Amino acid sequence: MADSVFSKYDKNGDGTISCVELYDALKELLGMEPWWTLFERVRSKADANRDGKLTKEEFCNVAAIFEEIKALKAVFGEMDQDRSGTMSFEEMQKKAVTFYTTHADKYDGKRAMHVMNHYAGDKKKGMMEEEFLDIMFKDSC
């Protein structure tokens, strides 16, 4: 199965996944247009030898990374109770205790503070999914 998935994204058949091929894989597998910081974090977490391409073995790491991103997207979806695409301060506050007690082993208090600091002084401000993922996905895999 891993071979067929790897082959699907190794469009030029050179035995590695290039940056362009990884971008296409991210777009398809996550069902979203990846922004630069997300793309770069995935690439750097998966590219063990830092050569800018992913071998078949390195590409296997991407599956766990995708699952992490999908889980964080689901968390954002739970917090965005009105499905506006933006998490309000009130929405975040209602779910924060449950989230951090459930996931305290994986997500440290610093990230919680970063999310809270996003609203610093402006409780009417919203947080987009991309901003949430940028905070929560740092070094989480």
Can you give a write-up of this model?
The chain has 141 residues and is mainly α. 62% of the residues lie in helices and 3% in strands. A two-stranded antiparallel ribbon has the order 1-2. Helix 3 (36-46) crosses helix 4 and helix 4 (56-79) packs across helix 7 (129-136). The radius of gyration is 17 Å and the shape is elongated. The two termini are 23 Å apart.
If you compute it from the alpha carbons, what radius of gyration comes out, rounded to the nearest whole angstrom? 17 Å
Report the β-strand fraction as a percent range.
Answer: under 5%
The separation of the N and C termini measures 23 Å
Q: How confident overall, as mean pLDDT?
A: 83
> Which stretches are poorly predicted, pLDDT < 50 over at least 5 residues?
none
What structural class should be given to the helix and strand makeup? mainly alpha
Annotation, overall tally of beta strands:
2
Oligomer: single chain
How can the largest sheet be summarized? Answer: 2 strands, antiparallel
Q: Could you spell the SSE succession in H and E letters? A: HHHHEHHEH
How much helicity do the residues have? 55-70%
Shape: elongated
Largest beta sheet: strand ordering: 1-2
Number of helices: 7
